[in-house]
C-alpha cells in the first residue's frame, strides 16, 4: 500500500496546529502552518534554550524550583554546569519523571514505581505541568518567529487566538488525566477557560499519534492483515493494533484490538532504575557512594541506548583519572559493568513488551503480521534486536522507521489533526451508570439482595445495578452514539439532572452490580463521598459527570399519582460518544417531539450521584 497523499488545507483562513509531547524523560514539539489551499507540512522545533545542537529534537522533562516554588530552570537549562552548581548551593528542588504521577493509580511505593521521585511539597501536579507547558509554549513561539521566514514574526500574532494545541498521552489515560492536562493548559495560557476555547485543546493517545507517524514514514499493511504500533517511551510502552482500507487515494485505519498501556509501565526509566539499584548496592559504604546519581544519569544518557552485546562489558566514565578501585570495577574514573548485567536491566521491559504484543495479537480481529517500533526507547539497539529475535519465530516482522523515532508522537499528533487516518476505535472498558431497577421476585439475585420501596411511587426496586451503556471490546465508528433511557421520580419537578458515567475496569465481561468486584466504590457512595476512593482494588471509577438543566423539559416531566400524593417522573436518555479520543457525554429528552440535549461537563473528579435514577 503506497503512502497516502495529504490533502490541501480546506479552511478559509490561515491557522496553526501545535503538538506538545510531554514525555517522562524527554519532550518535543511539532507544528504545521495551515494555509488555505496549500498542502500542510509537519515541522519540528529543533532549537531550545541551552540545548546541544547535536541533540536538538527534544529537551529533558526536568524542572528546578527554588524553596519558594519559583521555577529557576527548565529543560536543557537544568543540565548546565552553572545551573547544577547553583541548584546545589541554593538547595533547589529537582523535578523529573513528573508525568508518571499523572497515571491512573499513582501509588509509588512498590516496584517498579518506587524509582519515581516524589513531587515537591509546595507544588501540585497541575502546576508543574502548567509550568512545563508554558515553557514549551515560549519555545515554539520563539522558534516560529525566528525561523519561519515566509511569514515572519507576524505569523504568531495573526493566528494566536486560533491555534489548535494537540496534547498526547499514554493509551490508558482518559477522563481524569485529560481533565488535569486541560487545567494545566489553561493555567499555562495556551487557551482561556471559556466554552469558545475548549475545542482548541485536542487529545490523542500516544499509540494513535505513533500510527500517524508510521503512516507518513512508509508503514504498509497487507490486505486482511494487521500491525501493532509499539511506542516505547520513557515511562510506558504503548501498543495499538490496526488494519487498513483504501478508497481511491484515501487510506483509513481501523483499530482492531484494545490498546494496551497499563500492563506496560516498563519504559526506559525502569531500565535506568534497575541500573541505579545495581550501582547503589555495589557502591554502598564505599568512597564512591556519592557518585551513584552521576553514574545513573550517564548510564541513562549514553550506555542504555548504545548497549548491543551481552558478551561485552559497558563502561561509564563518571570521575577523575585518579578514581580507581579494581575490586569495584572502577579504573581511572570509569566503571565497568558486565554485559550480562546490563542485559538483565532490560529484562523486565523486554518481557513486558513481548507479553503485551502476544496478548494484543491474540485479541485482534485480524491476523497481526508486523510490529512497528517507535518512541525514544526504540533507539535502543538491544530492545530492537531482542524483539526481533523473539518475534520473528512467531511470524512477526519487526520494523523501525529510519527517521527520528523519538519525534514520532509529536509529529504524529500533528498528523492526527490534519490527516485523521483512524476512523474506528475499540472500547477499552465497559461504560455505564449506577441505578435502580424494578424488583423481580423471580430473579434469584434480586431475592438474595432484597428490595427497597421508592417513597413517592411505592414501587419495589433493587439497588446497586450497573446499567451498561457500552460494553468493552466493541469497535466504534466516530459518529456512532450509545444511548440508554432512564427516569427519576421526585416530589417536585427537577431543575437539573446529574449522572455519573462509571467505567468498569475489571475482568467480568458482563458486569451487573456495582458492589461486586467494586473495592471501595460502594462504601464511598454510602458515606456520601464526593471524591472517589483511590483504592487500587477499585474496578468502578467515575469516567465523567454529565449535568443538564431540565427546566425547559416540560413535556418530559409527567405528573403521577403516588402513595401519599402526586409525584413527577422525569424521563431522559444518557448518550455517550466514544469514536474520538475524548469521551463525550450528553443527557437528552424529547420536548414536543423535538430531541433536546442537556449541557455536559466532562472529566470531573467529583460527582453528585442521583440515588433515584432508574432504568426504563
CATH topology of the largest domain: Nucleotidyltransferase, domain 5
| Beta-strand proportion | 25-35%
Helix residue percentage: 10-25%
What kind of oligomer do you see? single chain
Rg, please? Answer: 27 Å
Query: What is the count of β-strands?
Result: 30
CATH class of the largest domain: Alpha Beta
Largest sheet: 7 strands, mixed
pLDDT averaged residue by residue: 84
Low-confidence parts, pLDDT < 50 over ≥5 residues? 519-537, 599-612
Note the gap between the termini.
49 Å
What does this structure look like?
This protein is α+β, with helices and mostly antiparallel strands and 616 residues long. It has three domains: 15-204, 2-Layer Sandwich (Nucleotidyltransferase, domain 5), CATH 3.30.420; 219-400, 2-Layer Sandwich (Nucleotidyltransferase, domain 5), CATH 3.30.420.40; 427-615, no CATH class. The strands form six sheets. It has a seven-stranded mixed beta sheet with strand order 17-16-10-11-12-18-22, sandwiched between helices. Helix 2 packs across helix 4, helix 6 packs across helix 7 (292-306) and helix 8 packs across helix 9 (381-391). 42% of the residues are buried. The model is unreliable at 519-537 and 599-612 (pLDDT under 50).
Summarize the structure.
This protein has 616 residues and is α+β, with helices and mostly antiparallel strands. The protein is built from 12 helices and 30 strands. 25% of the residues lie in helices and 30% in strands.
